[in-house]
Amino acid sequence: MSRARVGIVGAGVMGAGVAQALAETGHDVLLLDIDDRTLAAARREIVHHTRMRRLLGGVDVDPETVIAAVTSTTDYDAMCDVDFVIENATEQWEVKREVYPRLDRVCAPGTVLIANTSAHRITRLAALTGRPDRVLGVHFMNPVPLKPAVELIRGYHTSEDSVARVQGLLEAMGKRAIPVRDSPGFVSNRVLMLMVNEAAFLVQEGVASAEQIDDVFRSCFGHPMGPLEMADLIGLDTILYSVEVLHDSFSDSKYRPCSLLHELVDAGLHGRKSGRGFYSYALANEAIDEGGALAHHD
Q: Is residue 49 annotated as part of the catalytic site, yes or no?
């Protein structure tokens, strides 16, 4: 695929990761969020992580070249001439249902809207637009630049042309697409969120500490990260919202969110991005702030 112009809605952890992966592979990125501070933080993260990947031999790209390919904006109208939009808004229906009609109004008729969602049905999101044939889901994994595969989810009305165009974009990003059916949570999060939620219950009940639980999964099963380390990486707010979507969608008590997750999220302890979740990351975040700043820009 030739160089594409891709709009990114949401400059949080996932949005910044998708923007970085696109810019590193030669695409132009338009990064949108409602908050200039969030945009600025995302730009610093992109530079920092690209620099670290280059130092470790992961990529041979200049961080300055990467960030130069990323334009920041708070104006939806700027999305008028992009080839694709990748939506990374928080996993709350009240938020997402406001995004798609706005994109549908301002984007060109041929623009494909891609939902980077971990739980919501693609067909339901597509119904918010007048272009359901040009809406599909791509579930990127965190950290986006390091993960070689994604879940690709087509909605009920998604066209073959839209699927082919998005597969071309993903191939250009070095991502392998694994097609799965449109169901809440798809494959990865329908399984993963149950595991994380149950691990949180184990901490709440005093069966084991977060460290002990993660040690079991690393040492006994060979997982590179335990479920609660992974939850902190993903973001406990995202975990909670995803579990709530599964609970609401299936009306099954096995998806009942752990009250400890509610408590941590209400307290603002969202994991790595806030400096504390099941673990503390204050020193690591300070190191990023000191070493990762470039100039300015979810």
A: no
Q: How many CB atoms lie within 10 A of CB 286?
A: 11
Helices 210-221 and 227-234: angle between axes, nearest 10 degrees = 110
Residues of the chain with pLDDT under 70: 1, 283-298
Residue keyed to tokens 């994994």: 141
244 is catalytic: no
Please say if 88 is a catalytic residue.
no
70 three-state secondary structure:
strand
Contact assessment for residue 188 and residue 139, using Cβ atoms and an 8 Å cutoff = yes
The predicted structure's pLDDT at residue 58: 80
- State the Cα–Cα distance between residues 101 and 25, nearest whole angstrom: 29
Q: Do residues 80 and 106 touch, judged by C-beta distance below 8 A?
A: yes
pTM: 0.88
209 among known catalytic residues: no
How buried is residue 264: exposed, middle or buried, by Cβ count under 10 Å (0-12/13-18/19+)?
A: buried
pLDDT, residue 1, reads 67
Contacts of 128 (CB under 8 A, 6+ apart): 97, 100, 101, 104
pLDDT tens-digit readout, 164-213: 999 999 999 999 999 999 999 999 999 999 999 999 999 999 999 999 99
**Catalytic hit among 72, 88, 189, 274:** 189
**Angstrom distance (rounded) from CA 130 to CA 141:** 28
Determine which one of 88, 118, 162, 197 is catalytic: 118
Rounded CA-CA distance 183/118 in Å is: 10
Q: Active site residue: 87, 151, 229, 244, which one?
A: 151
- From the list 27, 49, 139, 270, the catalytic residue is 139
- Do residues 144 and 88 touch, judged by C-beta distance below 8 A? no
